[in-house]
Specification:
The chain has 155 residues and is mostly beta strands. It contains 2 helices and 11 strands; from the N terminus they run βαββαββββββββ. It has 2 domains: 82 residues, Aspartate carbamoyltransferase regulatory subunit, N-terminal domain (Alpha-Beta Plaits), CATH 3.30.70.140; 50 residues, SH3 type barrels. A 5-stranded antiparallel beta sheet has the order 2-3-1-4-5, covered by helices on one side. Strands 6-8-9-10 form a 4-stranded antiparallel beta sheet, covered by helices on one side. A two-stranded antiparallel ribbon has the order 7-11.
Length: 155
């Protein structure tokens, strides 16, 4: 047990160039990691959970050295962790910081839950209008089925 007056601090290694995804809802951290297929590349990846957060209690954090995210990846993250922020790191410094934000329409990244939807019967790219961003709520443009929360299934 450390002494009462110790100034021990937990720290996570800095990355030179890459991406930091911060303010992930704690329970969504591994879902975000799964979206990014982090186990298939050569990059160094740090995943933290149950980190103290200033606003929402505990949070998750993912650092990926040597990689910037695609727009499709950011849109998927916005569906799973709508309060997350994406920080672009260059030379150990944050050069860009932005909150994830869903566009007005998402295409090709969510599966329609309606088994009779044309997207589940033919080779048609899925397309959803975004009704709400946080928590996400989407409506299929083909069958007009609304999905939200756990019903949102990523492709």
């Amino acid at each position: 047990m450390p002494p009462e007056n110790s100034d021990k601090e937990l720290s996570v290694a800095a990355i030179r160039d890459g991406t930091v995804i911060d303010h992930i809802q704690n329970e969504a951290t591994f879902k975000v990691a799964d979206i990014l297929n982090l186990d298939t590349g050569e990059e160094v990846v740090l995943v933290g959970m149950n980190l103290p957060g200033s606003k929402a209690g505990r949070k998750g954090l993912i650092k990926i050295d040597g990689r910037e995210l695609t727009l499709e990846e950011v849109n998927k993250i916005a569906l799973i962790a709508p309060r997350a922020t994406v920080n672009i790191i260059k030379g150990y410094r944050v050069v860009e910081k932005r909150k994830v934000q869903l566009p007005e329409q998402v295409e090709g990244i969510v599966r329609c839950i309606n088994p009779n939807c044309v997207t589940n019967k033919q080779s048609v790219t899925t397309r959803f209008d975004v009704l709400e961003s946080s928590p996400p709520s989407l409506r299929c443009v083909y069958c007009e089925r609304t999905v939200s929360g756990a019903d949102i299934i990523l492709k």
